[in-house]
């Protein structure tokens, strides 16, 4: 199958490309002409088409002949800096250009759109009491990144209802690439600089930290290893009865700080402390029942395996994941 991936140089796009090539698909990537990360694709049998999501001609040239499209490219919070106009032009108008190019094909491809959990209000007083569900948890966008991605979702769903263009929205949680979980700032005291709970003396020593809320509950978060997200993307290509649907992806289960940090401490040989924080805690998880039912999604990488594999990768081991940079 001929597959187009926008955002092919990102942590998800590059690993998805490698997986699809291994499975015998012909992969094409739309890349910004000055993208410095294309070196990570060296040795991978992919075709690179240079162009911009904001240029309809570039997009049409990239989409032509594709049997499936993964629209992962976007202006995102960790990049930039991006203006409100950039977010609109790249994430909203760029998605419109992708949909129009797909609709213009004699045999329109399925388009899989990368959504984001940034559209949810996850950090609330007391934490979330119910798992986040695509069909129940309201979208409450804050900032132009979340708003632009939410508008992209609406466009995709609208093109299914208006033109029967097969679109699938996959909402991604926070995704970690090779080795990245070891540097997650909220596992380290140094990542909490500026909070009144900590003095410079305590922060001067390397320590991990188990975060708890005002009631003493350990923080809880639901993230994913890039390999699980790639699995979900791959399954969405051929799944039946998913057109027009929105599907949340995440790892096999949420983790709590009192589970992850002691394990990380043991593996790194760095001691940890425990502390309570004031304000809205990190305390949420996702209901993945729709992904399991519609896609046959079976995430494998829990927090312990992510940590162990990240250490193996840092030590030169091959865990089947491309470097992030």
What does it look like?
- The structure is a single chain.
- By secondary structure, this protein is of the alpha/beta class.
- Helices cover 33% and strands 18% of the residues.
- It has nine helices and 13 strands.
- It has helices at residues 11-22, 56-63, 84-103, 144-163, 200-203, 226-238, 257-268, 289-295, 303-314; strands spanning 2-6, 26-31, 46-50, 68-71, 110-116, 167-172, 174-176, 208-212, 220-221, 223-225, 245-249, 255-256, 272-276.
- It has a seven-stranded parallel sheet, sandwiched between helices. It has a two-stranded parallel sheet with strand order 7-10.
- Strand 1, helix 1 and strand 2 (26-31) form a beta-alpha-beta unit.
- Helix 1 (11-22) packs across helix 6, helix 2 (56-63) packs across helix 3 (84-103) and helix 3 (84-103) runs parallel beside helix 4.
- The radius of gyration is 20 Å and the shape is globular.
- The protein starts with a strand and ends in an 11-residue tail after the last helix.
- Mean pLDDT is 93; it is low at 199-203.
Distance between the termini: 28 Å
Q: What would the principal axes of the Cα set say about the shape?
A: globular
Number of helices: 9
The pLDDT mean sits at 93
Q: How large a portion of the residues is in β-strands, by DSSP E?
A: 15-25%
Uncertain parts: 199-203
The proportion of residues forming helix, as a percent range, comes to 25-40%
Sheet having the most strands: 7 strands, parallel
**Computed CA radius of gyration, to the nearest angstrom:** 20 Å
The counted number of beta strands is 13
Strand order of the largest sheet: 3-2-1-4-5-6-11
**Order of secondary-structure elements:** EHEEHEHEHEEHEEEHEEHEHH
Q: Which class do the helix and strand fractions yield? A: alpha/beta
């Amino acid at each position: 199958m001929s597959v187009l991936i926008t955002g092919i140089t990102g942590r998800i796009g590059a690993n998805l490309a490698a997986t699809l090539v291994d499975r015998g698909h012909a992969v094409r990537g739309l890349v910004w002409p000055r993208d410095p990360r294309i070196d990570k694709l060296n040795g991978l049998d992919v075709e690179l088409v240079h162009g911009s999501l904001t240029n309809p001609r570039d997009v049409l040239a990239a989409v032509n002949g594709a049997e499936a499209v993964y629209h992962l490219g976007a202006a995102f919070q960790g990049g930039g800096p991006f203006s409100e106009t950039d977010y609109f032009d790249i994430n909203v108008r760029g998605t419109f250009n992708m949909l129009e190019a797909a609709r213009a094909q004699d045999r329109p491809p399925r388009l899989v759109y990368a959504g984001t959990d940034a559209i949810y209000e996850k950090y609330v007083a007391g934490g979330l009491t119910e798992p986040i569900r695509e069909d129940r948890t309201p979208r409450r966008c804050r900032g132009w990144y979340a708003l632009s991605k939410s508008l992209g979702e609406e466009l995709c769903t609208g093109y299914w209802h208006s033109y029967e263009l097969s679109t699938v929205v996959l909402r991604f949680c926070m995704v970690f690439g090779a080795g990245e979980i070891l540097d997650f700032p909220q596992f380290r005291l140094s990542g909490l600089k500026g909070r009144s709970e900590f003095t410079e003396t305590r922060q001067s020593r390397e320590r991990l930290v188990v975060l708890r809320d005002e009631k003493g509950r350990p923080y809880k978060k639901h993230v994913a290893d890039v390999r699980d997200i790639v699995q979900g993307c791959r399954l969405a290509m051929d799944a039946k009865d998913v057109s027009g649907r929105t599907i949340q992806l995440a790892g096999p289960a949420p983790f709590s700080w009192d589970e992850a940090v002691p394990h990380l401490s043991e593996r790194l040989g760095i001691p940890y402390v425990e502390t309570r924080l004031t304000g809205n805690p990190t305390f949420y998880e996702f209901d993945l029942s729709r992904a399991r039912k519609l896609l046959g999604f079976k995430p494998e990488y829990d927090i312990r395996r992510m940590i162990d594999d990240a250490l193996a990768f840092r030590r030169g081991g091959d865990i089947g994941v491309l470097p992030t940079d």
